[in-house]
Write a structure and sequence with these properties.
This protein folds into 3 domains: 222 residues, FAD/NAD(P)-binding domain, CATH 3.50.50.60; 118 residues, FAD/NAD(P)-binding domain (3-Layer(bba) Sandwich), CATH 3.50.50.60; 75 residues, no CATH class. Helices cover 34% and strands 19% of the residues. It has 12 helices and 19 strands. Strand 15 and strand 16 form a beta hairpin. The longest helix has 29 residues. It is globular, with a radius of gyration of 23 Å.
């Protein structure tokens, strides 16, 4: 055992949330920070992402508060045409490495320990040399990856695969460089949709794609997450229609029918009501492309893959002998129980706004930098649990609104939100020239907030009670 390290904050994990937290803490305090990570470089799960992965939200709202990601460009081709750019996986990794090399380490107050891990006894082990070091943490251990999920390339499959069957990860199919008679995409989440869109972009005919969809998912229209005045009116109408759907809903099924009808939540097939919701975004153009895939299998999860056959929970499907199965079944982010963010000697970074992890990490770091009392900080950072099921939309919306209301009562926090580039609701949305129509929309939206919150609480109680 070697002695050596003292630090104010020990951040466990140099993924997106860990780097975002560190960036804000460096900007707003004089604290010393140590970042420890099992990975060899910053970026967390992005280090193992498939080569064609992109963000599902604009680059403008992702990363760290002090440094822009991308150039705020509008895409002119592809499914994201007309919307703000989505950084590729490689761009994201380069970005986080740049933040580390040009902002964090040059501060002189950050020590970065890659290929290391925090042991249960509180020491740090260097995994290459197996040397261990004591560390004295003066303030808090920051758990930046609480509830971290699986990566498609690394996760453990929950189904059997016969030895003569090609079952590949998204990374492996991108590197395979050979045709197959049929492509079976396993999984209906973001990764599954990404792979389907990638296959279509590669020229694979929709008739050759089989999409195994254990549960249909609700999707968010990506146009709702756009910076700039040109999207202001669309977003305002979207938010108003969402609140009006919430206010009018009498049951849970009525709520989702209204949200779907208004386009606040999107689905692949109007004849199938989704039961999953995981914050995935899609554009109408991408949805149109996905709808070209006619063979969608809704027989539950795969249990076994054999040559010429898929065995699923609720039946069997015959496929071509020369079928490649693409495993997209990894759980991107785990659904875990929420815990208080601020605890004695520990900070558990969690989302405090729906679907915005790096903003949440920066916001939590800002609270740590500016408020001393843990009870006050926890009151301002109620965790928003990551969703998995349709009804999770309700709790997410309710807690996000409650948090936002609390923040807006505090002038210091209001000012910080306006200055934070990661805040999709404030910094990235500059209102265009005011018109009577826009003023009326804005007034209706403000008037809808309180009744929407009241009915959300009622609907959330119904969800807790298992009512439909």
């Amino acid at each position: 055992m070697k002695l050596g390290y003292e630090t104010d904050y020990l951040i466990v994990g140099s993924g997106a949330s860990g780097i975002s937290f560190a960036d804000t803490l460096v900007s707003e305090t004089q604290s010393h920070i140590t970042i420890v990570d099992r990975q060899h470089s910053p970026g967390g799960h992005w280090n193992s992402a498939y080569p064609f992965v992109r963000l599902h939200q604009p680059s403008a709202f992702y990363g760290v508060a002090s440094q822009a990601l991308g150039s705020n460009r509008i895409d002119t081709t592809g499914g994201n045409k007309g919307l703000h750019e989505l950084a590729s996986g490689r761009e994201v990794l380069t970005y986080f490495q740049t933040v580390m090399d040009r902002k964090l380490l040059p501060s002189g107050r950050v020590r970065y320990l890659p290929n290391c891990e925090l042991l249960e006894n509180g020491s740090i082990r260097a995994n290459i040399t197996q040397e261990t070091h004591q560390i004295n943490v003066r303030k808090s251990i920051v758990h930046s990856s609480y509830g971290a999920g699986e990566v498609p390339a690394l996760h453990r499959r929950k189904f059997e695969v016969d030895g003569d069957v090609d079952c590949l990860t998204p990374t492996e199919i991108a590197e395979k460089q050979q045709p197959f008679e049929q492509y079976a995409v396993l999984g209906s989440g973001k990764t599954g949709a990404d792979v389907c869109l990638w296959l279509l972009d590669q020229g694979v005919h929709p008739s050759k794609i089989v999409w195994v969809m254990p549960r249909d998912a609700w999707w968010i229209d990506r146009r709702m997450f756009q910076p700039g005045s040109e999207f202001h009116e669309f977003k305002l109408k979207y938010a108003l229609e969402e609140n009006e759907a919430v206010i009018a809903a009498e049951t849970l099924s009525d709520l989702f029918a209204r949200l779907g009808h208004a386009g606040n939540l999107l689905r692949l097939d109007p004849d199938h009501t989704p039961t999953a919701y995981k914050c995935g975004t899609v554009t109408p153009a991408e949805l149109d492309s996905l709808r070209k895939i006619e063979t969608v299998i809704r027989l539950g999860h795969v249990t076994r893959l054999s040559r010429g056959k898929m065995t699923l929970k609720h039946g069997e499907i015959v496929v071509a002998d020369d079928t490649v199965f693409i495993d997209c079944t990894a759980t991107g982010i785990q659904k875990v129980a929420s815990v208080p963010v601020f605890q004695p000697g520990h900070i558990f970074v969690q989302s405090v706004r729906t679907c915005q992890p790096t903003f949440s990490a920066a916001f939590i770091a800002h609270l740590e930098a500016t408020i001393a009392d843990d009870a006050q900080k926890n009151a301002l950072s109620v965790p928003v649990p990551y969703p998995a099921d349709d009804i999770d939309w309700i709790g997410q919306k309710m807690i996000s609104l409650q948090n936002q209301f609390m923040w807006l009562q505090n002038k210091s926090i209001r000012d910080w939100l306006k200055s934070c580039r990661l805040d999709a609701l404030t910094a990235g949305d500059r209102a265009p020239t005011e018109t009577p129509e826009l003023a009326q929309l804005s007034a209706r939206f403000k008037d809808s907030l309180f009744p929407a919150m009241i009915n959300l609480k009622k609907l959330n109680s119904m969800a807790d009670a298992g009512e439909a």
